[in-house]
Protein backbone atom coordinates (compact mmCIF):
# COMPACT_ATOMS: atom_id res chain seq x y z
CA UNK A 1 0.00 0.00 0.00
CA UNK A 2 1.48 3.37 -1.03
CA UNK A 3 2.15 6.21 1.37
CA UNK A 4 -0.63 8.29 -0.26
CA UNK A 5 -3.21 5.52 0.20
CA UNK A 6 -2.14 5.04 3.80
CA UNK A 7 -2.55 8.77 4.39
CA UNK A 8 -6.04 8.75 2.92
CA UNK A 9 -7.09 5.80 5.07
CA UNK A 10 -5.64 7.48 8.13
CA UNK A 11 -7.53 10.72 7.50
CA UNK A 12 -10.73 8.82 6.78
CA UNK A 13 -10.34 6.91 10.05
CA UNK A 14 -9.86 10.19 11.91
CA UNK A 15 -12.90 11.69 10.18
CA UNK A 16 -15.13 8.81 11.22
CA UNK A 17 -13.95 8.27 14.78
CA UNK A 18 -12.29 11.31 16.26
CA UNK A 19 -15.06 13.93 15.75
CA UNK A 20 -17.58 11.64 17.40
CA UNK A 21 -15.30 10.91 20.35
CA UNK A 22 -14.45 14.55 20.91
CA UNK A 23 -18.05 15.63 20.48
CA UNK A 24 -19.25 13.14 23.08
CA UNK A 25 -16.48 14.26 25.44
CA UNK A 26 -17.42 17.89 24.89
CA UNK A 27 -21.10 17.21 25.41
CA UNK A 28 -20.35 15.62 28.76
CA UNK A 29 -19.01 18.98 29.94
CA UNK A 30 -22.22 20.86 29.13
CA UNK A 31 -24.62 21.52 32.00
CA UNK A 32 -27.69 19.37 31.53
CA UNK A 33 -30.72 21.26 30.27
CA UNK A 34 -34.07 19.60 30.46
CA UNK A 35 -35.71 19.56 27.02
CA UNK A 36 -39.47 19.61 26.64
CA UNK A 37 -41.09 16.23 27.31
CA UNK A 38 -41.09 14.12 24.18
CA UNK A 39 -42.95 10.94 23.48
CA UNK A 40 -40.63 8.98 21.25
CA UNK A 41 -42.54 6.90 18.72
CA UNK A 42 -40.67 3.95 17.32
CA UNK A 43 -39.62 4.27 13.70
CA UNK A 44 -38.06 1.60 11.57
CA UNK A 45 -35.39 3.11 9.36
CA UNK A 46 -34.12 1.51 6.22
CA UNK A 47 -30.40 1.36 5.67
CA UNK A 48 -30.81 2.62 2.12
CA UNK A 49 -33.56 4.86 0.72
CA UNK A 50 -35.68 3.55 -2.11
CA UNK A 51 -36.46 5.96 -4.87
CA UNK A 52 -38.99 5.46 -7.60
CA UNK A 53 -37.61 7.12 -10.76
CA UNK A 54 -41.14 7.69 -12.02
CA UNK A 55 -42.12 9.47 -8.82
CA UNK A 56 -40.50 12.76 -9.64
CA UNK A 57 -42.11 15.22 -12.04
CA UNK A 58 -42.17 18.94 -12.59
CA UNK A 59 -43.84 21.22 -10.04
CA UNK A 60 -46.34 23.82 -11.13
CA UNK A 61 -44.40 26.78 -12.50
CA UNK A 62 -46.42 29.32 -10.59
CA UNK A 63 -45.90 27.48 -7.31
CA UNK A 64 -42.17 27.39 -7.89
CA UNK A 65 -42.11 31.16 -8.39
CA UNK A 66 -44.20 31.85 -5.32
CA UNK A 67 -42.45 29.53 -2.91
CA UNK A 68 -38.78 29.74 -3.86
CA UNK A 69 -37.05 30.49 -0.61
CA UNK A 70 -33.63 31.73 0.41
CA UNK A 71 -33.01 30.21 3.81
CA UNK A 72 -30.79 32.00 6.29
CA UNK A 73 -29.00 30.83 9.38
CA UNK A 74 -27.25 33.13 11.84
CA UNK A 75 -27.77 35.97 9.40
CA UNK A 76 -26.16 34.11 6.49
CA UNK A 77 -27.84 33.03 3.26
CA UNK A 78 -27.78 29.44 2.05
CA UNK A 79 -29.70 29.54 -1.21
CA UNK A 80 -28.37 26.22 -2.47
CA UNK A 81 -29.88 24.45 0.51
CA UNK A 82 -33.26 26.10 0.08
CA UNK A 83 -36.24 24.66 -1.72
CA UNK A 84 -34.91 25.79 -5.09
CA UNK A 85 -34.84 22.15 -6.19
CA UNK A 86 -38.39 21.38 -5.16
CA UNK A 87 -39.46 21.41 -8.80
CA UNK A 88 -39.06 17.64 -9.09
CA UNK A 89 -40.49 16.81 -5.68
CA UNK A 90 -44.07 17.67 -6.59
CA UNK A 91 -46.14 16.57 -9.55
CA UNK A 92 -49.08 18.31 -11.12
CA UNK A 93 -52.53 17.48 -9.80
CA UNK A 94 -54.88 16.38 -12.54
CA UNK A 95 -57.80 14.05 -13.11
CA UNK A 96 -56.25 12.02 -15.92
CA UNK A 97 -57.09 8.57 -14.62
CA UNK A 98 -58.65 5.99 -16.88
CA UNK A 99 -61.94 4.58 -15.76
CA UNK A 100 -62.65 7.51 -13.49
CA UNK A 101 -66.09 8.13 -14.95
CA UNK A 102 -68.49 5.68 -16.56
CA UNK A 103 -69.92 6.63 -19.93
CA UNK A 104 -72.81 5.27 -21.97
CA UNK A 105 -70.31 3.74 -24.39
CA UNK A 106 -66.88 4.38 -25.81
CA UNK A 107 -68.57 5.02 -29.16
CA UNK A 108 -70.67 7.78 -27.57
CA UNK A 109 -67.56 9.39 -26.11
CA UNK A 110 -65.73 9.29 -29.44
CA UNK A 111 -68.75 10.82 -31.19
CA UNK A 112 -69.00 13.67 -28.69
CA UNK A 113 -65.28 14.44 -28.86
CA UNK A 114 -65.39 14.33 -32.65
CA UNK A 115 -68.29 16.79 -32.65
CA UNK A 116 -66.38 18.98 -30.24
CA UNK A 117 -63.44 19.18 -32.59
CA UNK A 118 -65.65 20.36 -35.46
CA UNK A 119 -68.17 22.55 -33.68
CA UNK A 120 -67.13 22.78 -30.05
CA UNK A 121 -68.83 26.12 -29.37
CA UNK A 122 -72.32 24.77 -30.09
CA UNK A 123 -71.70 21.61 -28.10
CA UNK A 124 -70.33 23.54 -25.13
CA UNK A 125 -73.36 25.83 -25.05
CA UNK A 126 -75.65 22.79 -25.10
CA UNK A 127 -73.74 21.10 -22.29
CA UNK A 128 -73.81 24.24 -20.14
CA UNK A 129 -77.56 24.37 -20.65
CA UNK A 130 -77.83 20.70 -19.63
CA UNK A 131 -76.00 21.46 -16.37
CA UNK A 132 -79.12 23.36 -15.32
CA UNK A 133 -81.41 20.45 -16.15
CA UNK A 134 -83.94 19.19 -13.62
CA UNK A 135 -82.70 15.67 -14.29
CA UNK A 136 -79.79 14.51 -12.13
CA UNK A 137 -78.79 12.03 -14.82
CA UNK A 138 -78.76 14.85 -17.37
CA UNK A 139 -76.59 16.96 -15.09
CA UNK A 140 -74.20 14.06 -14.55
CA UNK A 141 -73.84 13.43 -18.26
CA UNK A 142 -73.25 17.11 -18.99
CA UNK A 143 -70.70 17.48 -16.18
CA UNK A 144 -68.91 14.35 -17.31
CA UNK A 145 -68.64 15.52 -20.90
CA UNK A 146 -67.51 19.00 -19.87
CA UNK A 147 -64.85 17.38 -17.73
CA UNK A 148 -63.69 15.31 -20.72
CA UNK A 149 -63.66 18.30 -23.07
CA UNK A 150 -61.61 20.32 -20.58
CA UNK A 151 -59.26 17.43 -19.97
CA UNK A 152 -58.52 16.47 -23.57
CA UNK A 153 -58.52 19.88 -25.28
CA UNK A 154 -56.85 22.64 -23.25
CA UNK A 155 -58.25 25.32 -25.55
CA UNK A 156 -61.75 24.27 -24.51
CA UNK A 157 -61.15 25.24 -20.88
CA UNK A 158 -61.47 28.95 -21.56
CA UNK A 159 -64.38 28.41 -23.95
CA UNK A 160 -66.31 26.42 -21.34
CA UNK A 161 -65.76 29.05 -18.67
CA UNK A 162 -66.79 31.87 -21.01
CA UNK A 163 -69.95 29.93 -21.91
CA UNK A 164 -71.10 30.23 -18.30
CA UNK A 165 -70.29 26.75 -16.97
CA UNK A 166 -68.53 27.80 -13.77
CA UNK A 167 -71.51 28.74 -11.58
CA UNK A 168 -73.69 25.72 -12.44
CA UNK A 169 -70.68 23.45 -11.88
CA UNK A 170 -70.14 25.05 -8.45
CA UNK A 171 -73.76 24.23 -7.67
CA UNK A 172 -73.01 20.59 -8.48
CA UNK A 173 -70.04 20.66 -6.09
CA UNK A 174 -72.56 21.32 -3.31
CA UNK A 175 -74.85 18.47 -4.42
CA UNK A 176 -75.94 15.82 -1.93
CA UNK A 177 -75.51 13.23 -4.69
CA UNK A 178 -71.94 11.97 -4.19
CA UNK A 179 -71.37 11.07 -7.83
CA UNK A 180 -72.73 14.37 -9.10
CA UNK A 181 -70.53 16.17 -6.57
CA UNK A 182 -67.51 14.20 -7.78
CA UNK A 183 -68.24 15.08 -11.41
CA UNK A 184 -68.63 18.76 -10.54
CA UNK A 185 -65.40 18.91 -8.52
CA UNK A 186 -63.40 17.23 -11.27
CA UNK A 187 -64.84 19.51 -13.95
CA UNK A 188 -63.91 22.56 -11.84
CA UNK A 189 -60.43 21.11 -11.39
CA UNK A 190 -59.93 20.72 -15.13
CA UNK A 191 -61.20 24.24 -15.81
CA UNK A 192 -58.77 25.57 -13.19
CA UNK A 193 -55.87 24.23 -15.24
CA UNK A 194 -56.34 27.36 -17.35
CA UNK A 195 -54.75 30.31 -15.54
CA UNK A 196 -57.32 32.72 -16.96
CA UNK A 197 -60.11 30.77 -15.25
CA UNK A 198 -58.74 30.83 -11.70
CA UNK A 199 -59.96 34.30 -10.79
CA UNK A 200 -63.41 33.60 -12.25
CA UNK A 201 -63.72 30.30 -10.37
CA UNK A 202 -62.69 31.88 -7.06
CA UNK A 203 -64.85 34.98 -7.47
CA UNK A 204 -67.85 32.80 -8.37
CA UNK A 205 -67.74 31.29 -4.88
CA UNK A 206 -66.01 27.96 -5.51
CA UNK A 207 -63.72 27.92 -2.46
CA UNK A 208 -66.25 27.09 0.27
CA UNK A 209 -68.03 24.35 -1.73
CA UNK A 210 -64.65 22.79 -2.59
CA UNK A 211 -63.72 22.81 1.10
CA UNK A 212 -67.02 21.11 1.97
CA UNK A 213 -66.32 18.51 -0.72
CA UNK A 214 -62.90 18.00 0.83
CA UNK A 215 -64.69 17.13 4.06
CA UNK A 216 -67.67 15.07 2.89
CA UNK A 217 -66.85 13.70 -0.56
CA UNK A 218 -65.63 10.35 -1.83
CA UNK A 219 -61.90 9.66 -1.83
CA UNK A 220 -61.67 10.78 -5.47
CA UNK A 221 -63.71 13.90 -4.69
CA UNK A 222 -61.39 14.79 -1.81
CA UNK A 223 -58.28 14.28 -3.93
CA UNK A 224 -59.61 16.39 -6.79
CA UNK A 225 -60.89 19.06 -4.41
CA UNK A 226 -57.39 19.28 -2.92
CA UNK A 227 -55.97 19.70 -6.42
CA UNK A 228 -58.53 22.35 -7.34
CA UNK A 229 -57.73 24.30 -4.16
CA UNK A 230 -54.06 24.01 -5.03
CA UNK A 231 -54.72 25.57 -8.44
CA UNK A 232 -56.69 28.42 -6.91
CA UNK A 233 -53.99 28.95 -4.27
CA UNK A 234 -51.56 29.99 -6.97
CA UNK A 235 -53.23 33.39 -6.66
CA UNK A 236 -51.86 34.95 -3.48
CA UNK A 237 -55.16 36.45 -2.34
CA UNK A 238 -56.83 33.05 -2.58
CA UNK A 239 -54.38 31.51 -0.10
CA UNK A 240 -55.85 33.64 2.68
CA UNK A 241 -59.44 32.83 1.71
CA UNK A 242 -58.73 29.10 1.43
CA UNK A 243 -56.96 29.05 4.79
CA UNK A 244 -59.78 30.90 6.53
CA UNK A 245 -62.38 28.56 5.03
CA UNK A 246 -61.11 25.61 7.09
CA UNK A 247 -59.21 23.83 4.32
CA UNK A 248 -55.90 23.47 6.17
CA UNK A 249 -57.13 21.06 8.86
CA UNK A 250 -58.95 18.98 6.23
CA UNK A 251 -55.81 18.77 4.09
CA UNK A 252 -53.80 17.70 7.14
CA UNK A 253 -56.37 14.96 7.75
CA UNK A 254 -56.08 13.84 4.12
CA UNK A 255 -52.29 13.81 4.47
CA UNK A 256 -52.63 11.51 7.48
CA UNK A 257 -55.45 9.20 6.41
CA UNK A 258 -55.60 9.31 2.61
CA UNK A 259 -54.19 6.85 0.12
CA UNK A 260 -50.98 7.59 -1.74
CA UNK A 261 -52.64 9.94 -4.22
CA UNK A 262 -54.51 11.69 -1.41
CA UNK A 263 -51.31 12.15 0.62
CA UNK A 264 -49.48 13.45 -2.43
CA UNK A 265 -52.23 15.91 -3.37
CA UNK A 266 -52.61 17.10 0.23
CA UNK A 267 -48.87 17.65 0.61
CA UNK A 268 -48.69 19.61 -2.64
CA UNK A 269 -51.64 21.82 -1.66
CA UNK A 270 -50.24 22.40 1.84
CA UNK A 271 -46.86 23.31 0.40
CA UNK A 272 -48.48 26.05 -1.66
CA UNK A 273 -50.90 27.30 1.00
CA UNK A 274 -48.32 27.40 3.80
CA UNK A 275 -46.19 29.98 2.07
CA UNK A 276 -48.09 32.54 4.19
CA UNK A 277 -47.65 32.72 7.96
CA UNK A 278 -51.26 32.38 9.09
CA UNK A 279 -51.65 29.12 7.18
CA UNK A 280 -48.41 27.79 8.68
CA UNK A 281 -49.85 28.39 12.13
CA UNK A 282 -53.12 26.70 11.16
CA UNK A 283 -51.26 23.66 9.84
CA UNK A 284 -49.22 23.26 13.03
CA UNK A 285 -52.32 23.68 15.18
CA UNK A 286 -54.07 21.03 13.07
CA UNK A 287 -51.34 18.51 13.96
CA UNK A 288 -49.43 18.38 10.69
CA UNK A 289 -46.12 17.44 12.33
CA UNK A 290 -47.16 13.90 13.22
CA UNK A 291 -47.93 12.77 9.64
CA UNK A 292 -44.97 14.72 8.24
CA UNK A 293 -42.50 13.05 10.60
CA UNK A 294 -44.04 9.62 9.99
CA UNK A 295 -43.80 10.04 6.21
CA UNK A 296 -40.22 11.32 6.38
CA UNK A 297 -39.28 8.31 8.51
CA UNK A 298 -40.65 5.87 5.92
CA UNK A 299 -38.30 5.80 2.93
CA UNK A 300 -40.60 3.32 1.23
CA UNK A 301 -43.49 5.77 1.23
CA UNK A 302 -42.18 7.81 -1.73
CA UNK A 303 -43.20 10.82 0.36
CA UNK A 304 -39.88 11.73 2.02
CA UNK A 305 -39.12 14.60 -0.37
CA UNK A 306 -42.61 16.06 -0.35
CA UNK A 307 -42.91 15.88 3.43
CA UNK A 308 -39.49 17.43 3.93
CA UNK A 309 -40.29 20.31 1.60
CA UNK A 310 -43.58 20.97 3.41
CA UNK A 311 -41.69 20.97 6.71
CA UNK A 312 -39.13 23.36 5.24
CA UNK A 313 -41.79 26.03 4.66
CA UNK A 314 -43.32 25.50 8.11
CA UNK A 315 -40.13 25.46 10.16
CA UNK A 316 -39.67 29.23 9.99
CA UNK A 317 -42.25 29.77 12.77
CA UNK A 318 -41.49 28.95 16.44
CA UNK A 319 -44.59 26.77 16.84
CA UNK A 320 -43.34 24.46 14.09
CA UNK A 321 -39.93 24.05 15.73
CA UNK A 322 -41.54 23.10 19.02
CA UNK A 323 -43.95 20.69 17.32
CA UNK A 324 -41.30 18.87 15.30
CA UNK A 325 -39.22 18.33 18.44
CA UNK A 326 -42.26 17.06 20.36
CA UNK A 327 -43.02 14.60 17.55
CA UNK A 328 -39.45 13.23 17.68
CA UNK A 329 -38.57 14.80 14.34
CA UNK A 330 -34.90 15.45 15.16
CA UNK A 331 -33.76 11.79 15.00
CA UNK A 332 -35.72 11.38 11.77
CA UNK A 333 -33.97 14.37 10.20
CA UNK A 334 -30.57 13.12 11.38
CA UNK A 335 -31.34 9.73 9.83
CA UNK A 336 -32.14 11.45 6.53
CA UNK A 337 -28.79 13.27 6.68
CA UNK A 338 -27.11 9.88 7.15
CA UNK A 339 -28.85 7.68 4.57
CA UNK A 340 -31.08 9.86 2.39
CA UNK A 341 -30.54 10.93 -1.20
CA UNK A 342 -28.39 13.97 -1.87
CA UNK A 343 -31.41 16.25 -2.13
CA UNK A 344 -33.00 14.75 0.98
CA UNK A 345 -29.79 15.28 2.92
CA UNK A 346 -29.54 18.91 1.90
CA UNK A 347 -33.11 19.82 2.80
CA UNK A 348 -32.77 17.94 6.12
CA UNK A 349 -29.63 19.95 6.91
CA UNK A 350 -31.41 23.22 6.18
CA UNK A 351 -34.31 22.21 8.46
CA UNK A 352 -31.95 21.21 11.28
CA UNK A 353 -30.20 24.55 11.06
CA UNK A 354 -33.52 26.36 11.30
CA UNK A 355 -34.48 24.29 14.34
CA UNK A 356 -31.19 25.02 16.10
CA UNK A 357 -31.18 28.75 15.52
CA UNK A 358 -31.29 30.68 18.81
CA UNK A 359 -32.08 27.60 20.90
CA UNK A 360 -29.34 25.99 22.99
CA UNK A 361 -31.55 23.10 24.12
CA UNK A 362 -32.37 22.08 20.55
CA UNK A 363 -28.72 22.43 19.52
CA UNK A 364 -27.67 20.03 22.24
CA UNK A 365 -30.46 17.60 21.27
CA UNK A 366 -29.34 17.61 17.62
CA UNK A 367 -25.73 16.99 18.63
CA UNK A 368 -26.69 14.15 20.98
CA UNK A 369 -28.61 12.48 18.15
CA UNK A 370 -25.30 12.14 16.30
CA UNK A 371 -25.75 14.82 13.64
CA UNK A 372 -22.16 16.07 13.62
CA UNK A 373 -20.37 13.05 12.00
CA UNK A 374 -22.77 12.80 9.02
CA UNK A 375 -22.58 16.56 8.56
CA UNK A 376 -18.80 16.33 8.44
CA UNK A 377 -19.05 13.39 6.03
CA UNK A 378 -21.11 15.49 3.61
CA UNK A 379 -18.04 17.58 2.87
CA UNK A 380 -16.40 14.62 1.12
CA UNK A 381 -18.58 15.00 -1.96
CA UNK A 382 -16.17 17.40 -3.60
CA UNK A 383 -19.00 19.27 -5.35
CA UNK A 384 -19.55 23.01 -5.32
CA UNK A 385 -22.17 22.48 -2.65
CA UNK A 386 -19.58 20.82 -0.43
CA UNK A 387 -17.94 24.20 0.03
CA UNK A 388 -21.21 25.61 1.28
CA UNK A 389 -21.70 22.62 3.54
CA UNK A 390 -18.34 23.36 5.13
CA UNK A 391 -19.71 26.82 5.92
CA UNK A 392 -22.77 25.21 7.44
CA UNK A 393 -20.62 22.96 9.60
CA UNK A 394 -18.66 25.99 10.76
CA UNK A 395 -21.94 27.49 11.93
CA UNK A 396 -22.98 24.18 13.44
CA UNK A 397 -20.21 24.47 16.02
CA UNK A 398 -22.67 26.80 17.76
CA UNK A 399 -24.76 23.75 18.62
CA UNK A 400 -23.28 23.90 22.09
CA UNK A 401 -22.07 26.50 24.55
CA UNK A 402 -18.56 27.51 23.40
CA UNK A 403 -15.67 26.36 25.54
CA UNK A 404 -11.94 25.66 25.07
CA UNK A 405 -12.45 21.93 24.48
CA UNK A 406 -15.26 22.49 21.99
CA UNK A 407 -13.28 25.13 20.13
CA UNK A 408 -10.35 22.71 19.89
CA UNK A 409 -12.69 19.94 18.68
CA UNK A 410 -14.15 22.07 15.91
CA UNK A 411 -10.80 23.46 14.84
CA UNK A 412 -9.55 19.90 14.45
CA UNK A 413 -12.66 18.78 12.53
CA UNK A 414 -12.46 21.69 10.11
CA UNK A 415 -8.75 21.11 9.48
CA UNK A 416 -9.47 17.45 8.73
CA UNK A 417 -12.22 18.56 6.31
CA UNK A 418 -9.83 20.81 4.42
CA UNK A 419 -7.25 18.01 4.15
CA UNK A 420 -9.83 15.46 3.00
CA UNK A 421 -11.27 17.76 0.36
CA UNK A 422 -7.75 18.39 -0.95
CA UNK A 423 -6.93 14.65 -1.05
CA UNK A 424 -10.15 13.31 -2.52
From TrEMBL:
Keyword entries, A-Z: Repeat, Signal, Transferase, Ubl conjugation pathway
Catalytic activity: S-ubiquitinyl-[E2 ubiquitin-conjugating enzyme]-L-cysteine + [acceptor protein]-L-lysine = [E2 ubiquitin-conjugating enzyme]-L-cysteine + N(6)-ubiquitinyl-[acceptor protein]-L-lysine
EC numbers: 2.3.2.27
Domain U-box stretches: 124-391
Enzyme class: transferase
InterPro entries per record: ARM-like, ARM-type_fold, ARM_PUB, Armadillo
Pfam families for this protein: ARM_PUB
Signal peptide segment: 1-28
ARM repeat segments: 164-206, 205-247
Gene Ontology process terms (BP): protein ubiquitination
GO molecular function term, any single one: ubiquitin protein ligase activity
Source domain of life: Eukaryota
Pathway: Protein modification; protein ubiquitination
PANTHER family linked to this entry: ARM REPEAT SUPERFAMILY PROTEIN, U BOX DOMAIN-CONTAINING
Task of the protein: Functions as an E3 ubiquitin ligase.
Protein name: RING-type E3 ubiquitin transferase
Organism field: Dovyalis caffra
Amino acid sequence: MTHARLSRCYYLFLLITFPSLLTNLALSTIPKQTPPPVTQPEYTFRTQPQTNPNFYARIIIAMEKENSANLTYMGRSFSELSVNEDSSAFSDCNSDRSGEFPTASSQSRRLILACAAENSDDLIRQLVSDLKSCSIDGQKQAAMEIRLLAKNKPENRLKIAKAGAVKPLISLVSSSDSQLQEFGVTAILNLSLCDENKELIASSGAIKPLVRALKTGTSTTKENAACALLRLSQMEENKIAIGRSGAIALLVNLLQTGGFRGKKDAATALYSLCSIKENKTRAVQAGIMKPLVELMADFGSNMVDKSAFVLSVLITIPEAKTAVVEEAGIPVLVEIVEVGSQRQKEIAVSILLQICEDNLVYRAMVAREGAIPPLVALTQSGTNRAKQKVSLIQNFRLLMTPGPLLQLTWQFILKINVVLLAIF
